[in-house]
């Protein structure tokens, strides 16, 4: 997402050549990608995409990883049919583009998705993860949605909810040390505010040398120096979900 000095220099990173093991479904007015584990479960994770949208193979790869770890994973189109950002778009138009896609205004869609998970999939316990734009959406949901158990915000845009820290549910925040979009001073301030205001369990973790998007937009075989941190970030995410779901 954006900061004051440079409107969202989000690089799509390594676009995975990945088809996905799940299927696309229609959930009321929303399309969604769903992947289910081999064994039946009453636990699910809502995956909130970044600015590149719900069809990005990288995000579906993470959804499938969650399914491999025993969760029903659903990645809805939170842009609700509006076009995702494309790397070829003019960054000068980004601020206008993102104004019509507010990470703090997804409650209607989330309610639809939660109803689907409970009614159609028999789910009782639901968590949420999100990347970049979706990471900000996770923080929004952790502040207000009583039906979710826990959340993981991966390089979520801090300034989007800079003055709100009274989280309802345990939340894990993942950041990269070298993230051009989220300066470390913002992360430090977030930690201070959470310490002062948050009454539930939370963790803020900074991964050494990592840039924006490292958990889902870098490939271990292309970025071997980052491989330990990519794997650590993914495992930390799973461990947090396992603990609270």
UniProtKB/TrEMBL annotation:
GO terms for molecular function: hydrolase activity. Residues 30-245 form the Dienelactone hydrolase domain. One of its GO terms (cellular component) is cytosol. Gene3D superfamilies: alpha/beta hydrolase. The keyword Transmembrane helix does not apply. Keywords: Cytoplasm. It comes from the Eukaryota. Pfam families: DLH (PF01738). It is found in: Cytoplasm, Cytosol. Its main location: cytoplasm. PANTHER family: CARBOXYMETHYLENEBUTENOLIDASE HOMOLOG. Belongs to the dienelactone hydrolase family. This is Carboxymethylenebutenolidase homolog. It comes from Pteruthius melanotis.
């Amino acid at each position: 997402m954006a900061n004051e000095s440079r409107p969202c220099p989000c690089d799509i990173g390594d676009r995975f050549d990945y088809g996905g093991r799940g299927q696309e479904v229609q959930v009321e007015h929303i399309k969604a990608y769903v992947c289910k584990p081999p064994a039946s479960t009453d636990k699910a994770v809502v995956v909130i995409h970044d600015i590149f949208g719900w069809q990005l193979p990288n995000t579906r790869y993470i959804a499938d990883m969650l399914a491999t770890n025993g969760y029903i994973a659903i990645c809805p189109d939170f842009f609700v049919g509006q076009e995702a950002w494309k790397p070829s778009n003019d960054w000068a138009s980004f601020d206008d583009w993102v104004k019509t896609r507010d990470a703090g205004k997804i409650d209607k869609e989330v309610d639809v998705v939660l109803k689907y998970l409970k009614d159609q999939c028999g789910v009782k316990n639901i968590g949420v993860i999100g990347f970049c734009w979706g990471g900000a959406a996770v923080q929004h949901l952790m502040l207000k949605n009583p039906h979710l158990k826990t959340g993981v915000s991966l390089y979520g845009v801090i300034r989007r909810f800079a003055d709100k820290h009274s989280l309802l549910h345990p939340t894990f925040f993942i950041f990269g040390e070298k993230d051009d979009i989220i300066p470390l001073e913002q992360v430090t301030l977030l930690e201070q505010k959470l310490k002062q205001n948050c009454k539930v369990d939370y963790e803020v973790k900074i991964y050494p040398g990592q840039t924006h998007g490292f958990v889902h937009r870098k490939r271990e075989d292309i970025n071997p120096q980052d491989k330990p941190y990519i794997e650590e970030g993914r495992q930390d995410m799973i461990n947090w979900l396992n603990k609270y779901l």
